[in-house]
Design a protein that fits this description.
Radius of gyration of chain B: 15 Å
Order of helices and strands of chain B: EHHEEHHHEE
CATH topology of chain A: Udp-n-acetylmuramoylalanyl-d-glutamate--2,6- Diaminopimelate Ligase, Chain: A, domain 1
Order of helices and strands of chain A: HEEHEHEHEHE
Number of strands of chain B: 5
Strand order of the largest sheet of chain B: 1-2-3-5-4
Largest sheet of chain B: 5 strands, antiparallel
Shape of chain B: globular
Distance between the termini of chain B: 35 Å
Strand content of chain B: 25-35%
Oligomer: heterodimer
CATH superfamily of chain B: Histidine kinase-like ATPase, C-terminal domain
CATH architecture of chain B: 2-Layer Sandwich
Largest interface: A-B, 22 and 27 residues
Radius of gyration of chain A: 14 Å
Largest sheet of chain A: 6 strands, mixed
Number of domains of chain B: 1
CATH superfamily of chain A: HprK N-terminal domain-like
Structural class of chain B: alpha+beta
Number of helices of chain A: 5
Distance between the termini of chain A: 35 Å
Number of helices of chain B: 5
CATH class of chain A: Alpha Beta
């Protein structure tokens, strides 16, 4: 799906990256743990997170994520928007909780980036 | 094309606002050198985790980054507390992080395992009370499938 479709499904406010709204989002991932995003995401994924700081933007840039959506009405400050614009990472925000936002996108066909653990859960 | 290149970065401990700057620069340079994007991503992730470890735990460090036609090597040498038990630190989920570190989205015990996952080789030398030297290499010649095992 396109970033524009994501934006309309989640009634997003677009903080930066308006010109990138036709970008194709291949996978979805959701986490407040940036190390998990670095470990398990794939390039081409979009991140849903409640973590609003510079590490979110650096992680998105390093892991080649296509966009970041902040959940639960969280808003980035000016510096963060500037950093994201420099790195060409679109930033969006939704009022939905992480759970709801994930549910909406999943229901609409956005596949997860992280490997499914359903069939192979273990104790370590 | 001659890809030989080297650069050093200084990383300051506890300066969270700068955390990630060196690694994003490394990534930009590798892209400019025309390195395969999957390799760029692996180097950038490993380097970012190493940089975050310095910011979170050490006083300061130097990150030396070298690209040859064969491989990309990164050596991060810090002045810091050192690692008491390297084997334990390599375990996913083991962490000595503070709340502040966790609030940054790190400190969940994934740093060293993430570096290992993305590198073709990783060497750690550490002396408690002095510091840690981390050296990892990513080969440019052979492709490999990254795994979490080992």
């Amino acid at each position: 799906m396109t970033l524009s479709e994501v934006s309309s499904m989640l009634s997003c406010e677009v903080f930066c990256g308006e010109k990138e709204m036709n970008t194709i989002i291949e996978y979805g991932c959701a986490s407040d743990l940036m190390s998990d995003v670095l470990a398990f995401s794939r390039s081409g994924a979009m991140l849903l997170t409640g973590l609003v700081n510079t590490q979110t933007i650096h992680t998105a840039f390093i892991a080649e994520l296509k966009a970041v959506v902040f959940v639960r009405g969280k808003r980035p400050d000016k510096d963060l928007i500037t950093l994201a614009s420099e790195k060409k990472i679109p930033l969006l925000g939704t009022q939905f909780s992480m759970y709801e936002a994930c549910g909406i996108l999943y229901k609409n066909g956005l596949v997860p980036t992280m490997e499914s653990i359903t069939a192979k859960s273990s104790n370590g | 094309m001659d890809k030989s290149f080297s650069q050093s970065f200084e990383i300051r401990g506890s300066v969270f606002i700068d955390a990630g700057k060196a690694s994003t620069e490394v990534k930009t340079i590798l892209k400019q050198l025309g390195i395969n994007s999957e390799i760029v991503r692996r180097v950038a992730i490993a380097s970012y985790e190493a940089e975050m470890n310095v910011v979170m735990y050490a006083k300061r460090a130097t990150m030396n980054f070298e690209v040859s036609s064969e491989k990309i090597s990164i050596v991060v040498e810090d002045e810091g507390p050192g690692i008491l038990n390297i084997e334990l630190a390599m375990k996913e989920g083991y962490s000595t992080a503070t709340t502040e570190m966790r609030e940054m989205g790190f400190g969940a015990g994934m740093g060293l395992p993430n570096i290992k996952k993305n590198a073709d080789s990783l060497k750690i030398e550490s002396e408690v009370g002095k510091g840690t030297k981390l050296e990892f290499v990513i080969n440019l010649k052979e492709q490999r499938v990254p795994t979490m095992s080992g």
